[in-house]
Design goal:
174 residues, globular, Beta-Lactamase, five-stranded antiparallel β-sheet, alpha+beta, 5 strands
Length: 174
């Protein structure tokens, strides 16, 4: 796929997420829907992605949601946003999502900014190979952390990945 076509597809997907988020207002697991769309091959194509929140005030790094594209059966649903109950049931039973949601440890050092060794350790515990990550500020002094492995070597995704990942900061955290 040509770079400009891929970039256009990514931007189109990103721009549709806020409206979709509003369609599920009040649901506790909106984060899983957003992470799925960001990870999907039509967006950033992340083989595995784990979203965690670091709260230095409570000395806690907690897993929120995880998506493993290889784990998702093909043709399970056509649109997760329209088939929200089916997707939610799948996510409750997803081994990778459960592993991420059950993850917890003491807060990251350095005011929430992870170092490469910390990322490697967390990624190893979650079963993420060749990890990359993005860290970003969130409300209430929290810091979001997305640890992921890319399915492809497209470096052009980095240009928009942080903007996309920032959408996770608008999701409720339970």
């Amino acid at each position: 796929m040509e770079r400009s076509e891929r970039k256009s597809r990514i931007l189109q997907n990103l721009s549709s997420i806020p409206k979709r988020m509003l369609s599920l207002h009040g649901r506790e697991n909106v984060t899983e829907f957003v992470l799925h769309d960001l990870s999907h091959e039509s967006c950033f194509n992340l083989g595995k992605s784990a979203f965690l929140v670091n709260n230095p005030d409570f000395n806690c790094l907690k897993g929120v949601a995880g998506i493993s594209l290889p784990e998702i059966p093909q043709g399970l649903w056509t649109n997760i946003w329209e088939q929200s109950e089916m997707f939610s049931t799948y996510m409750r039973n997803s081994p990778f999502n459960r592993k991420v949601r059950n993850f917890g440890q003491c807060s990251l050092e350095g005011a929430g900014r992870p170092n490469p060794e910390t990322i490697e350790n967390v990624a190893h515990n979650l079963g993420i190979e060749r990890p990359s990550y993005h860290s970003f500020d969130m409300r209430h002094g929290n810091h979001g952390l997305l640890i992921f492995e890319k399915n492809t070597q497209h470096d052009d995704i980095q240009e928009h990945l942080l903007e996309g990942v920032s959408l996770l900061g608008f999701c409720p955290i339970f």
